[in-house]
Automatic annotation (TrEMBL):
Ranges of residues in domain Creatinase N-terminal: 33-160
Organism: Sphingopyxis italica
Homology family: Belongs to the peptidase M24B family.
Enzyme class of the recorded protein, top EC level: hydrolase
Gene3D superfamilies attached to this UniProt entry: Creatinase/methionine aminopeptidase superfamily, Creatinase/prolidase N-terminal domain
EC number: 3.4.13.9
GO MF, any single term: metallopeptidase activity
Protein name according to UniProt: Xaa-Pro dipeptidase
Length: 392
């Protein structure tokens, strides 16, 4: 594929909504999730589970609300139906999104929702709480109940994706890869990073996503900073390009990075690009059921350290973890990093991005995602071919 061979207008005009969208997660799957959470609660000795607004509430109920100062949560007893705590004036909006059968516990603006939740439990009950529940809410609950970490009943389930989740994630990632391909075509000397970001957002929308969930566009020296620099750069001839972006489909994230040459780049950069690709491949090859998350990180680092980079997080080298879990949150447990000994299991999904940074000069990040299978790992999208051929 030729880089810089087209225009924004041509590329946007040829995009259309995704022809075969993946089906959304159904009510039956959400009921299974709730039953599984109740089984996990019994294992950890919890009488109830409190799930705060955010990705985990969406996972169980379909309600895609962000946390705020007003408590919105699911209170799930170890046996029985879930209850949704919500401000009374939000009832109509809640019902419109709620994808499961649940009792509503509505509170007025002058009432205390924490007390309302407490009335549904017996004194001394053990309450498993969402690890992302606000500290202040947890501390107030601690006065009356024994609190335990609800991660096994929340993150423990969310880490293992079902076939329907994998299909939604695959669509999001393939859509983003197509947007990447189109973005490379519109590059030209003088184009600003903000123009590329705007195009990427519009292209995601044209394919049926709600725009970009995030976007980083970095040229030349700025690629040496993993999350870029604040200025709006203009692309120059013979510079390195790094673009990292994603979207969501039914809440499930993509997050793909491509690094490639716009014109000619020095031989050292080409050698480092090949090393980055080797490290990414080593991490992929190390991913198999039963292997620890940290062993995947170690596999990538060994490639870099044999080439004289690092060790550990020293630069030039890899300044961050090799990858992160992904799903309804763009970063979620588990993590491909030293110290995370979580064993890999079929259905787990990760980014694979062992970035190489040469301080204040350049950085190279190739990021694709894989899911763990019964025998190893499988890519969601095809990794980059070369520094000059970012796409098949």
């Amino acid at each position: 594929m030729t880089i810089g061979c087209s225009t924004t207008e041509i590329e946007l005009a040829s995009l259309a909504p995704w022809a075969s969208p993946a089906p959304p997660v159904g009510a039956a799957e959400r009921r299974t999730r709730i039953a599984s959470a109740q089984a996990r609660m019994a294992e950890i000795g919890a009488d109830a589970l409190l799930v705060n607004a955010g990705a985990s509430l969406r996972y169980f109920t379909g309600v895609a609300w962000s946390p705020s100062e007003r408590l919105v949560a699911m209170l799930l007893p170890v046996a029985g139906e879930p209850r949704i705590i919500c401000p009374a004036f939000e009832q109509g909006s809640l019902v419109a999104e709620l994808a499961i059968a649940a009792d509503l516990l509505l509170w007025e603006e002058d009432e205390d929702p924490v007390q309302l939740a407490g009335k549904l439990l017996a004194p001394g009950d053990t309450l498993a709480i969402d690890p992302l529940l606000p500290f202040a809410v947890g501390e107030r609950l601690r006065r009356s109940f024994a609190l335990v970490d609800g991660s096994p009943a929340i993150d423990g389930l969310r880490m293992i994706k079902s076939p329907s989740e994998l299909a939604l994630m695959r669509q999001a990632k393939v859509m983003t890869l197509e947007v990447h391909r189109r973005a490379a075509r519109i590059l030209a000397p003088g184009i600003r990073a903000s123009e590329v970001k705007l195009f990427i957002d519009r292209a995601h929308r044209a394919l049926g996503a709600g725009g970009s969930s995030f976007c980083a566009v970095q040229f030349g020296r700025a690629t040496a900073f993993p999350h870029g620099l604040p200025e709006d750069q203009a692309l120059q001839e013979d510079e390195l390009v790094l673009i990292d972006t994603g979207c969501t489909v039914d809440g499930y994230h993509s997050d793909i990075t491509r690094t490639y040459a716009f014109g000619a780049v020095e031989p050292e950069i080409r050698e480092m690009w090949d090393l980055e690709k080797e490290a990414q491949a080593a991490a992929f090859d190390a991913a198999r059921p039963g292997a620890s998350c940290e062993s995947v990180d170690a596999a990538a680092r060994q490639v870099l350290e044999r080439a004289g980079l690092g060790p550990d997080y020293r630069l030039p080298g890899l300044p961050h973890r090799t990858g992160h879990g992904i799903g309804l949150s763009i970063h979620e447990p588990a993590y491909l990093v030293r110290g995370d000994r979580t064993p890999l299991a079929p259905g787990m999904c990760f980014s694979n991005e062992p970035m190489i940074v040469v301080p204040d000069r350049y950085g190279i990040r190739l990021e694709d995602h894989f899911h763990v299978t019964e025998t190893g790992a499988a890519w969601f999208t095809e990794p980059q071919h070369s520094i000059d051929r970012p796409f098949a």
